[in-house]
Amino acid sequence: QIFNQHNAEALSLEQAFHRMAQTEPNLDHDVSWFLLPSYWAKMVVALISFLCFANSYDGDFVFDDSEAIINNKDLRAETPLGDLWYHDFWGSKLSSNTSHKSYRPLTVLTFRINYLLAGGFYPVGFHVINIILHCTISVLMIDVFSILLGGLQFSNKGRRLNLAPKSSLLAALLFAVHPVHTECVAGIVGRADLLCALFFLLSFLGYCKAFRENKEGHTFSVLWVLVSVILGAIAMLCKEQGITILGLNAVFDALVINKINLLELIQKLLHKDKSLENAGQLRKGLLFRITLLMSGGASILYIRWRIMGTGPPAFTEVDNPASFADSLFVRAINYNYYYSLNAWLLLCPWWLCFDWSMGCIPLIKSVSDWRIIALATLWFCLIGLICQALCSEDSHKRRILTLGLGFLIIPFLPASNLFFRVGFVIAERVIYLPSIGYCILFTYGFSLLSKQAKKKKILAVAVLGILLINFMRCALRSSQWRSEEQLFRSALSVCPLNAKVHYNVGKNLADKGNQSAAIKYYREAVRLNPKYVHAMNNLGNILKERNELQEAEELLSLAVQIQPDFAAAWMNLGIVQNSLRRFEEAEQSYWTAIKHRKKYPDCYYNLGRLYADLNRHVDALNAWRNATVLKPEHSLAWNNMIILLDNTGNLAQAEAVGREALELIPNDHSLMFSLANVLGKSQKYKESEALFLKAIKANPNAASYHGNLAVLYHRWGNLDLAKKHYEVSLKLDPMAPGTKENYNLLRRKLEQLQKKGG
């Protein structure tokens, strides 16, 4: 439906709307920059934004990608699509008290499509989509900046005009090559920010289309306003920040469409000036459109709240230490310091880090801290800009500064800690949208300098230099995001006090088998944060494997003392206590772990090993059976059941368990080997042979496989084949227990047969 106004005010609005280009100064007049046709400008921006991040296309899954993608069951085909609407970004139920409450079902849906199209977890497809999204957003920025910097005007044919082609190109290039965007583009989890930004911009452009005059002469289209609200809702379903576009659309409507002077309006409202009624400033459909925007936003937030089910997520002090400070003064000072650091990242994006928590930024606890200067500088600049935006006699200047500040501040509000506690100190990804405001302010500042400068070419070269430096920084930072090792190590120089950085470097080294180096970083993580239970757990695990059991026990005991519900630490403590032959304590630790995590197959597996060591065979079998019920592909638990039943002479039961296991895990060569041993003892030689050969094909370098197949042939009377496999086994492992003795027995038997034959 089209909202119709047949009065003089509507006519004057239309006329004023079409005179905008003539009545307002042109920003491009003072900007010394390249002027390109619209098509070529978009091609240039697309190409440069692509080249910035192209070297990230074949990167790995890094950091949060593991939890959001690899370990997220919502990506797999067996998970019903409907579950996506009731799960958070990480695949947990939103109703759960442990849920992160980040509701981004459309982003998860794109991950799922990526996964299904690629046929598995192959990161290239995920990275390519992220790069394409950033290129698309950067191109859309030309249209957005042309409106924000040049105003909104349409031709007689209803086509929107770009009144600031040079300025909009410069601002779009600044956005395209800003290094702070690297986390969103090169980190796959950043897809949420990219999709949110895409629909955020489409919502804004859709709102602008509402004011395109049609043939009937109507002033605005309700349909396009509603489309804008829907696109804002879609943006929020990609990431929570998306809802802020509705507020920005309202600000744009007031400033650009209705040309309201905020300071003058406030003064008239305070003095109850009757001229306000005659001015008609608030009656040109503005109140109706704002009502639509507010109603849409409130409805979206209500639905979001109902789906979330419970209160806000529970974060820990290490995630956001300032929010846990007892003093309101300390909280306020540190929040403002965080804002100043975000502003600095926009101005000078040189020191970038994947994580800014865990001591990376120590708390400011008194006004004597020199860092107070940073937040004082921030507010000095902001107040100066706000005063200019409100008080300047130049309406063009007021409009651009207000829009620039609006796009800088409003999208950042959900991350500001003002409305609710957030789970981070600084996150570069949340500056993706606010950087639009930065680009507006930078471009406007450049135009003012160009107006004053005598040598405009030197200024243009300086801006080109900034773009080039940012481009190179993007390329360098993208290469660091290609692998976890490079990403984590790059953070050591930026945040040396961040315990999580040292933890992640250590974890990466441990995963690669470099335990000695990993220990060093885990120890440093624990030193920096003495309550870092995950670092203690991982360090305890390594020390356990190195048989340094005493220190391992001390670390794991401390971890469960700090966090009594840390199930993994309880299980690892049980393993250490079992190794120290303190069996009762080990059993108690295992059951404590299971109490805190009821579905814990690995703990049941280790509990079964404890019972096997104590010759409590029935309890061991029950524990391993529980492990396989919880995790049917738990190969070790199946194997141990087969071996225990085999060793206790229960061959029929061992055979039944082995066949059941192979039905569930048909390609597991260790299960084939264990079942083949059982079948051989049951004199089912043919079937046993087939399984041995299949296991050897899957793992040809296992000496025990060849040795046991040789024993089978030996029993079966196939002595030549027995000799062959004994020799292969001894070649692979000359010290293989029992194989040499069996081989010598076979040789003597063959010699005796040769003598008899002779």
From TrEMBL:
Residues 311-383 form the DUF1736 domain. Pathway: Protein modification; protein glycosylation. It comes from the Eukaryota. SMART domains: TPR. It holds the Pfam family TPR_16. GO terms for molecular function: dolichyl-phosphate-mannose-protein mannosyltransferase activity. The chain crosses the membrane at residues 39-57, 131-151, 188-208, 220-237, 243-266, 286-305, 372-391, 403-424, 430-449, 458-476. Its EC number is 2.4.1.109. Belongs to the TMTC family. This is dolichyl-phosphate-mannose--protein mannosyltransferase. It comes from Tachuris rubrigastra.
